[in-house]
From TrEMBL, chain A:
Keywords: Transferase
The protein's name: CoA transferase subunit A
Origin superkingdom: Bacteria
Keyword DNA repair found: no
Keyword Acyltransferase in annotation: no
GO MF annotation: an example: transferase activity
Pfam families: CoA_trans
From TrEMBL, chain B:
Pfam families membership: CoA_trans (PF01144)
Keyword line: Transferase
Protein's name in the database: CoA transferase subunit B
SUPFAM superfamilies: NagB/RpiA/CoA transferase-like
UniProt similarity note: Belongs to the 3-oxoacid CoA-transferase subunit B family.
Organism of provenance: Belliella kenyensis
Length: 231, 220
């Protein structure tokens, strides 16, 4: 069995280069590759294009990469939780492509699945449709949207094995499976890394073929944005 | 004027047994508190869950289990978890029957604006554009007027729109209105203590009034 294990986050991300296109799994701060982001922060790179549903918060997640001015462009669907992001965007320092969440998910899925483009109804008649081909199918208008791919995709799973197979937990799955498939080099960090053969093949969410490097993450903070409890 | 909770309570009366429903952030999230116990509905969270349960108790809090508003949640019995691509496949595929979301403006032909104020607010559209483009029925929870009294129910939206010709019903703090397929806001109910004249003066778009307009009834 091919062993995809690397020692740690530093080793996993060492060849990420300036101006690369990166994907990050996660929704809000749930299911984000915390260890890989920390390792990227220690590198002297910039001009990055980051594809991620959100942009973290000011002091956590991708927000930290924005603070360090490592990011040239963000491709996201919702960035409401990040004041520094909003500042850089309104001042023109940061390029931003905001796209509907389902379109983002499907563009990434298409990238991993070898589908160069597809039609979706989301955004018809809005500024998202500007410059895009419109076509009518069965009396309804649809927009042509293209695939998204990345030089590196960073994903976070609950469990993984040395062959790169991944299992996610709860709603921390979100964008991780599609991004795993859409990266030229996909780097997976997991809370629990086990030898190949120990995970039930029936339960695998991301087959190891999509993962080039895997490591056991550590010190997960798993920060909660809106801690809401019932009395 | 209705409170946010009263708007949610009134919208809950539109929910039908057996529906799969997506609730947006803000007032729509509150609707869950008012769905009668004898209705079996399944709430969809676009970050990958069918079967949103109540907020957790302190010891149930799990950072790996949140709703689209990033609030911690629990799962109901019979829940299913999935990826964002699967989530929006079920939304675009028309499997989610009812979408309830907030709006900054709605036009008389059913256009909705709720994602951007140019030069001021750039939070992004999240899943709203996908939801409004595909849901079978869309109910909007909103304030009837801005803070300085300007109508938000307009002839045409002034803000960048989220979707065209998609809103079916509006529950505002002043009224319940149906958006007619041929255009126009048809007044169905008034908030307690609000007159038809007041609603007329606060609605810029075409308002259709037929016969007596009853006050909202909050009894189930």
């Amino acid at each position: 069995m091919i062993n995809k294990t690397v020692k740690n986050a530093q080793e996993a991300v060492q060849d990420v280069f300036s101006n690369a296109v990166l994907m990050f799994g996660g929704f809000g701060l749930s299911g984000i590759p915390e260890n890989s982001i920390q390792a990227l922060l220690a590198m002297n790179i910039n001009g990055l294009t980051c594809i991620s549903n959100n942009a973290g918060v000011d002091d956590f997640g991708i927000g930290l990469m924005l603070q360090k001015r490592m990011v040239k462009k963000m491709i996201s669907s919702y960035v409401g939780e990040n004041a520094e992001f909003e500042r850089q965007l309104l001042s023109g320092e940061l390029e931003v492509e905001l796209i509907p969440q389902g379109t983002l998910a499907e563009r990434v899925r298409a990238g991993g699945a070898g589908i160069p483009a597809f039609f979706t109804p989301a955004g018809v008649g809005t500024e998202v449709a500007e410059g895009k081909e419109l076509r009518e199918f069965d009396d309804k208008l649809y927009l042509l949207e293209r695939w998204l791919k990345a030089d590196f995709a960073f994903v976070k799973a609950w469990k993984g094995d040395t062959a790169g197979n991944l299992i996610y937990k709860g709603t921390a799955r979100n964008f991780n499976p599609m991004m795993a498939a859409a990266g030229k080099i996909t780097i997976a960090e997991v809370e629990e890394l086990v030898p190949a053969g120990e995970l039930d093949p029936n339960q695998i969410h991301t087959p190891g073929i999509y993962v080039q490097r895997i490591f056991q993450g550590k010190n997960y903070e798993k920060r909660i944005e809106q801690r809401t409890v019932r009395k | 004027m209705l409170t946010k909770d009263q708007i949610a309570q009134r919208i809950a009366k539109e929910v039908k047994d057996g529906q799969y429903i997506n609730l947006g952030i803000g007032i729509p999230t509150l609707v869950a508190n008012y769905i009668p116990d004898d209705l079996d509905v399944i709430l969809q969270s676009e970050n990958g869950l069918l079967g949103i349960g109540p907020f957790p108790t302190e010891d149930q809090v799990d950072p790996d289990l949140i709703n689209a508003g990033k609030q911690t949640i629990t799962m109901t019995k019979g829940s299913a978890l999935f990826s964002s691509a699967e989530s929006f496949a079920m939304i675009r595929g028309g499997h989610v029957q009812l979408t309830i979301l907030g709006a900054m403006e709605v036009s008389e032909n059913g256009d909705i604006a709720n994602w951007k104020i140019p030069g001021k607010m750039v939070k992004g559209m999240g899943g709203a554009m996908d939801l409004v483009a595909s849901a079978e029925r869309i109910i909007v929870a909103m304030q009837h007027c801005s803070k300085n009294g300007q109508s938000k129910l307009l002839k045409s939206c002034t803000l960048p729109i989220t979707g065209i010709r998609c809103v079916d019903m509006i529950v505002s703090d002043m009224a319940v209105l149906e958006v007619l397929p041929e255009g126009g806001f048809k007044l169905l109910e008034r908030a307690p203590g609000i007159s038809v004249e007041e609603i007329k003066s606060k609605t810029e778009g075409k308002l259709i009034i037929e016969g007596e307009i009853p006050e909202m009834n909050f009894a189930n």
